[in-house]
Design a protein that fits this description.
With 333 residues, the chain is an alpha/beta fold. The chain has ten helices and 15 strands. It has two domains: 139 residues, Medium-chain alcohol dehydrogenases, catalytic domain (Quinone Oxidoreductase, Chain A, domain 1, Alpha-Beta Complex); 151 residues, Rossmann fold, CATH 3.40.50.720. Strand 14, helix 10 and strand 15 form a beta-alpha-beta unit. Helix 2 packs parallel to helix 3, helix 3 packs across helix 4 and helix 3 packs across helix 9. The structure holds NADP nicotinamide-adenine-dinucleotide phosphate.
């Protein structure tokens, strides 16, 4: 008899100590109801924001204790009672940290042909949509402007930076190792990349932005972002995608130390949550899907193998252990 395996949240974690708040449980294989599909998950996408949702209400409710951890997956339809999806279809779903998920067929998105499975979360899906709308619509970069991206060698950052580069900007990445910086300037074509763990990194950042900063794609907040704020030009835009530096802290995330800079420089700061843009996903895919197929947009999947390794893999997000999109392979395609 086939069984299901799923990671359940059993307590609210403190700091990085989330592994003992998660339990891998076995249960019966769920059956799809009318209009639903059962999906055998292949890749589970790991998100920094899941850490916040283990703790408290954010843009959505906290994950209830005893519930399966939420998240996106790609997988293969294993049983279908939804006319729009046949068995064997490859789909992206809000599947959670599970081996098999049952979802409404209407919530499943069939992957376009010619896209390797690990590319979906690396350059498309919620990552590609965040990068597209966060950079192009909120950042509004203009050719020739200087764009800085933090967590630049991560999933969203690596895509957002490439989009600004395609748009004709000077793109500077901030990342946590020399290897990550070399990937950004080598394979991804960033104009410069600065390792914020080097003691002279603030001077390197100033050198890399001789004309100041017009767009800041903010992924981290805190100490790494302060030197970027100081370089913002008049009428700069800050696209506030994430604040990962504070996600393991118990309290609220503090703002910029010198808020007056935003006034004096007439900066426009706008936060966004990707799900607000899901109804417009096709506007992004129209550009992104061909660019991924052609190799114009490059991507890297950081794949950890094995359902049992989900919690240890999740830690990598908060210690800079991943390059590109962190995902866990839980079955063979
Ligand atoms: N607004 C939305 O709807 C939305 C959607 C998706 C993601 N996001 C946000 O986008 C950001 C990136 O998410 P992602 O999924 O693409 O993850 P990711 O960038 O692939 O992984 C997280 C990276 O953040 C960096 N980091 C961790 N702690 C840090 C700290 N204290 N200071 C500086 N850098 C730190 C690490 O790289 P280093 O080695 O460079 O430190 C780590 O690899 C997160 O803040 C996430 O919440 C927002």
């Amino acid at each position: 008899m086939r069984t299901n395996r799923e990671w359940v949240l059993t307590a609210r974690p403190t700091g990085l100590e989330f592994e003992n708040c998660l339990e891998l449980r076995e249960g019966p294989l769920p059956e799809p109801g009318e209009g639903q599909v059962r999906v055998r998950n292949v890749y589970v996408s790991l998100e920094p924001a899941t850490r916040l949702r283990m703790q408290r209400e954010t843009y959505g409710p906290a994950i209830p204790l005893g519930a399966v951890v939420t998240g996106f997956t790609v997988g293969v339809v294993d049983a279908s009672r939804y006319p729009g999806l046949r068995e064997g279809a490859v789909v992206s779903i809000p599947g959670g940290w599970r081996a098999y998920s049952v979802v409404n067929g209407a919530d499943a998105r069939e992957l376009p042909p010619g896209i390797p499975l690990p590319a979906w979360f690396s350059a498309l899906g919620h990552i590609g949509i965040s990068a597209w709308f966060g950079m192009m619509e909120i950042g509004q970069p203009k050719p020739g402007e200087t764009v800085v991206v933090s967590a630049a060698a991560g999933a969203v950052g690596s895509q957002a930076g490439q989009l600004a580069k395609i748009h004709g900007c000077r793109v500077v990445g901030i990342a946590g190792s020399d290897e990550k910086c070399a990937w950004l300037t080598g394979e991804l074509g960033f104009d410069a990349a600065v390792n914020y763990k080097q003691p002279d990194w603030e001077a390197r950042l100033r050198e890399a932005c001789p004309k100041g900063v017009d767009v800041y794609f903010e992924n981290v907040g805190g100490a790494v972002s302060e030197p970027v704020y100081a370089l913002l030009n008049k009428h700069a835009r800050v696209s506030l995608c994430g604040l990962i530096s504070g996600y393991n802290d118990p309290g609220p995330t503090p703002g910029p130390k010198d808020f007056s800079l935003f006034l004096m420089k007439r900066v426009r700061l706008e936060g966004f949550i990707v799900s607000d843009y899901f109804p417009r996903a096709n506007d992004a895919y129209e550009r992104l899907v061909p660019w991924v197929r052609e190799g114009r947009l490059k991507w890297r999947a950081d794949v950890v193998e094995g359902m049992e390794n989900l919690p240890t893999a999740f830690r990598k997000l908060f210690v800079g252990g991943n390059t590109g999109k962190l995902q866990v392979k839980v079955s063979d395609p």
